[in-house]
Write a structure and sequence with these properties.
The chain has helices spanning about 10-35, 50-55, 60-90, 95-105, 110-120, 130-135, 145-175, 180-190, 190-205, 205-220, 225-230, 240-250, 255-295; strands at about 35-40, 45. The chain is mainly alpha-helical. It is globular, with a radius of gyration of 24 Å.
Length: about 300
């Protein structure tokens, strides 16, 4: 038997080393902190799962988790349809298409802390365009004093910031559909709705899986924008899981509970992403089976 050349593994060795230093080693440090009570740099006491139990009993954590899940689901429910709609409405070719693509990408280039500052000014009733417009209509608006309005403002800010990403992904997916499908639909006299339902949407499934997973994971880790805009308030209205973790680790310097919660946080994101991915894959398989049965 001819020996297999294993030298190709040398090509990925730098990547393995980078992952080890940037992910695995910090993760092991967090695991170490999560099972110890660090009294001083020289004195540590092993506490087992005590920090995990303490974190799970925290009422503030449960409230932050509910707010986080609600926010992420709202992001997906609004940004995915909006992104698909924008992609369908965009010009397919020519300079107009290039101009729209560049315009859409502008918000994606703005740093997260600047996005929070922009909306902080935008929502002010004295100098902000949105705040002044709402005040002119007689609507009492205050993202710093009203919990519901603060939460909705953060949601609107995220939609403005990240819907273009979904639109760009969907636009690329639409451009990848062969013209033969559209020609066949035109010959059959299919309506625009039928073309979307039976051609465009099924062909976008792979792109939408990526868009859903990216937006879910990113929205589930949102921190900078609401921190700059509202500071987590009023009250705890916009205190999401990442801010709760920061308060534990930096504000209160509870390294043990913060490390335990960071592991729980990681597992929550991993589990929910796995569930979303498998659900979308099953929906895709079911749709393909239905199409084949009709065919």
């Amino acid at each position: 038997m001819k020996p297999v050349n294993q030298k190709a593994w040398l090509l990925i060795l730098p990547v393995v080393l980078c992952v080890a230093f940037s992910a695995i080693l910090p993760l092991m440090t967090v695991v170490n902190y999560s099972v110890q009570d660090i009294i001083s740099p020289e004195r540590r006491v092993f506490v087992g799962t005590e920090w995990f139990k303490e974190v799970m009993r925290d009422e503030d954590l449960r409230g932050a988790l509910v707010r986080q899940v609600t926010f992420s689901l709202a992001v997906l429910a609004l940004e995915i349809p909006l992104g698909i709609g924008l992609a369908l409405a965009m010009p397919a070719t020519g300079w107009r298409s290039s101009a729209v693509l560049v315009t859409l990408a502008i918000s994606l280039l703005i740093p997260w802390n600047v996005v929070g500052t922009i909306w902080q000014i935008y929502g002010r009733t004295d100098i902000g365009l949105m705040g002044a417009a709402l005040a002119g209509l007689g609507i009492e608006y205050s993202y710093t004093g009203n919990a519901t309005q603060a939460w909705l403002t953060v949601l609107l800010m995220d939609i403005w910031h990240w819907t273009p990403l979904v639109a760009l992904l969907c636009f690329a997916g639409l451009r990848a559909i062969p013209d033969a499908y559209y020609q066949a639909a035109s010959i059959d006299g299919a309506s625009k709705l039928a073309v979307f339902r039976y051609i465009q949407l099924p062909k976008l499934r792979g792109v939408l899986v990526i868009a859903v997973l990216l937006r879910f994971m990113d929205s589930f880790m949102i921190y900078t924008e609401p921190f700059v805009l509202t500071g987590g308030g009023p009250g705890n209205a916009t205190t999401f899981l990442s801010q709760y973790l920061t308060q534990k680790a930096v504000g209160q310097f509870d390294l043990g509970p913060a490390a335990a919660f960071s592991l729980i946080y990681f597992l929550i994101i991993l589990l929910l992403s796995f569930i979303l991915y498998n659900w979308m894959q099953r929906v895709g398989i079911a749709d393909k089976a239905s199409e084949n049965s009709h065919g």
